[in-house]
Amino acid sequence: MMDRRALLIGAGAVTLLGGVARAARSAAFRPGEVWNDNNGVAINAHGGGLLRHAGRWWWYGEHKTAGKAGNTALVGVHAYSSTDLVNWRDEGIALPVSDDPDSPIARGCILERPKVVYNPRTRTFVMWFHLELKGQGYAAAQAGVAIARRPQGPFRFLRAGRVNPGIWPANATAEDKAPDTTLARDFAGGQMARDMTVFVDGDTAWQVYASEENATLQIARLAPDWTAHDGYYVRALPDGGNEAPALFKAKGRYYMFASGLTGWRPNPGRVYVADRVTGPWRSLGNPVRGSEEDRKTTFHSQSTFVVPLPPERSGGEPRFIFMADRWRPDNAIDGRYVWLPVEWDGETPVLRWRDRWTLADGWNAR
Ligand code: GAL
Q1: Is residue 238 part of a domain?
Q2: Which residue has a Cα nearest atom 12 of ligand 1?
Q3: Tens digit of pLDDT for each residue in 241-261?
């Protein structure tokens, strides 16, 4: 019988099988290490999110290229699929950037944090992302949307723009609406939308995004086909300076991992809880349990998504995986992924470093 250690050591190495190069199958997550796909090429899906559809997992993320320029979108959104969350098959570019310089998603734009959901009513895959127009830095702050009939795409770009122009958030106070606020400044043109995620709760999908110059998160409900906002939205954690939101629902409550605002540099993570998606959200502090360095940097990473494991893989308990990015802004393509189990310290979701772990490992999932 093959030594299990040999299997792990060989993980990620490319072997020749019947003349076809294939990557050895791997059993363990190895946070922060190079993570190869089925072709032995490093997975290129940064700021990503996962979708489970018809028994397969789909991982969508930013395809980065080498060097600093690789932080802009020169290729598009890359898709991978898997049945075990560890071994990923390259499914190609699901949403390519456009060669038309007049397209909002022209090559060289900034297209970040894509998230894909499947709408069962329309049988459509809907991708939302943060879009910055080419040559304008981070000024545009738009939400973009694209749709596809199949999970691997190709996704068709529909539109991008600011959120809910001419509509006040449902929970905005008179003070929030005062003319000197960012909220009021952007009322007519629509609210800014930078770091974002999409969270599906039953039949309803919500876009959660850093708005108001990144000071305040907004949580906006999507229309029934999930390709547009329906006009209902709230401000969350006003002036909290949160970004990189990643939501999940456990035991009837809503949790959100987020980060502070230090660009590509890591900072102490945060975790929040609420009884409703729309809040009010309450801080549970820093979810990281570990060294001072771990707590200060969230293991040198920034949240992007939380993966809910289906019950059959969770031994009856709801279990979740925290997904984060270890950015390498000087050589964007070398950014790494930090995936860790979500454990519980009483009512608080917590994260502990593991060099190597598998779904078969027991962890405190409550
Ligand atoms: C981070 C953000 C990333 C990217 C980066 C650019 O704060 O989370 O998605 O936008 O800033 O500096």
Answers
A1: yes
A2: 263
A3: 999 999 999 989 999 999 999
Is residue 264 within 6 Å of ligand 1 at its C-beta? yes
The token pair that represents 270 in the structure block: 């945060």
Q: How far is the CA of 11 from the centre of ligand 1 (A)?
A: 31
State pTM to two decimals. Answer: 0.93
Would you say residue 151 lies in a domain?
yes
Which residues span the domain enclosing 40? 4-352
Q: What is the CATH number of the domain that holds 136?
A: 2.115.10.20
User: Ligand 1: distance of its center to the CA of 59 in Å?
Assistant: 19
H or E segment at 308?
A: strand 302-309
Cα dist from 115 to 136, 146, 200, 314, 362, whole Å:
23, 10, 11, 23, 29
Q: Which ranges in 219-359 belong to alpha helices (H)?
A: 292-297
Ligand 1 pocket, residue 132 CB under 6 Å = no
What is the C-alpha separation between 153 and 243, in angstroms, rounded?
Answer: 28
Q: Is residue 364 part of a domain?
A: no
- Is 365 domain-assigned? no
- Report the number of distinct structural domains present in the chain: 1
**Nearest atom (ligand 1) to Cα of 110:** 10
- Encoded amino acid at 176, one letter: D
